[in-house]
């Protein structure tokens, strides 16, 4: 890959991270039920928001690892154990995000049972589960392929 392509993708990853961070900090203030709440009430008295912030940690870790992986691509170090470890971390982050979304969906069913229409929230959760599941599966496949390539490369280095 060209160096400019990897730099462009790294810039896109940084922009995604900045956008996600802005959304995490700005959206709770404009939410309908928080219209007249103080910042303390918004950010420290909402357990769902606390769970969303905790769940965002693996998301940002995965973004950082994707940024790092693109750095390895730009340096022609794709076939290294460090790249394999980066893909493994992305896989674990995606699986943990699936777990957080499943837990959020379970809480939605328990807390909102019969009180409100939750179809929109359930659908959004299912989309996120699908999205993060695809990422986890893709990272697993790339990790295996890359690990096989690294093993073959190390065997060839030993015979030379």
From TrEMBL:
<dbReference type="InterPro" id="IPR021354">
    <property type="entry name" value="DUF2975"/>
</dbReference>
<feature type="transmembrane region" description="Helical">
    <location>
        <begin position="118"/>
        <end position="139"/>
    </location>
</feature>
<feature type="transmembrane region" description="Helical">
    <location>
        <begin position="47"/>
        <end position="72"/>
    </location>
</feature>
<dbReference type="Pfam" id="PF11188">
    <property type="entry name" value="DUF2975"/>
</dbReference>
<keyword id="KW-0812">Transmembrane</keyword>
<feature type="transmembrane region" description="Helical">
    <location>
        <begin position="7"/>
        <end position="27"/>
    </location>
</feature>
<protein>
    <recommendedName>
        <fullName>DUF2975 domain-containing protein</fullName>
    </recommendedName>
</protein>
<feature type="transmembrane region" description="Helical">
    <location>
        <begin position="92"/>
        <end position="112"/>
    </location>
</feature>
<keyword id="KW-0472">Membrane</keyword>
<keyword id="KW-1133">Transmembrane helix</keyword>
């Amino acid at each position: 890959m060209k160096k400019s392509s990897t730099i462009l993708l790294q810039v896109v990853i940084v922009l995604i991270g900045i956008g996600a961070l802005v959304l995490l900090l700005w959206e709770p203030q404009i939410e309908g039920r928080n219209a007249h709440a103080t910042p303390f009430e918004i950010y420290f008295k909402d357990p769902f928001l606390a769970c969303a912030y905790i769940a965002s940690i693996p998301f940002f870790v995965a973004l950082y690892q994707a940024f790092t992986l693109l750095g390895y691509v730009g340096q022609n170090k794709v076939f290294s154990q460090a790249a394999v470890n980066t893909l493994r971390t992305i896989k674990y982050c995606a699986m943990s995000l699936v777990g957080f979304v499943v837990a959020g969906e379970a809480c939605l069913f328990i807390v909102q049972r019969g009180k409100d229409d939750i179809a929109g929230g359930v659908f959004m959760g299912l989309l996120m589960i699908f999205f993060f599941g695809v990422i986890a599966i893709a990272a697993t496949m790339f990790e295996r392929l890359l690990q096989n390539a690294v093993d073959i490369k190390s065997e060839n280095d030993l015979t030379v």
